[in-house]
Specification:
By secondary structure, this protein is of the alpha+beta class. It contains three helices and two strands. It starts with a helix and ends with a strand.
Length: about 70
């Protein structure tokens, strides 16, 4: 909601506001938060790159206020 709210409050700005939910990803931060969790069952970080790459690329020009789920 924050991305949507930010984009509505700055409609004429060249700055875009989007958010990406990567889901449960195998990472040091996740391991620290959930030490008993089996990391082998989690998605590797490189498997959730698509929405990030899309937002960094030219195809997403003008896309703002959206939420993307990576999984």
């Amino acid at each position: 909601r924050r991305a949507s709210s930010t984009s509505r409050s700055t409609p004429d700005s060249p700055i875009r506001s989007n958010s990406v939910n990567p889901g449960a990803v195998r990472s040091p931060m996740r391991a620290k938060a959930y030490p008993a969790e089996d990391a082998a069952k989690l998605t590797k970080p490189e498997a959730v790159l698509a929405p990030f790459l899309y937002l960094l690329g030219p195809d997403s020009r003008g896309v703002t206020g959206r939420r993307f789920d990576a999984q």
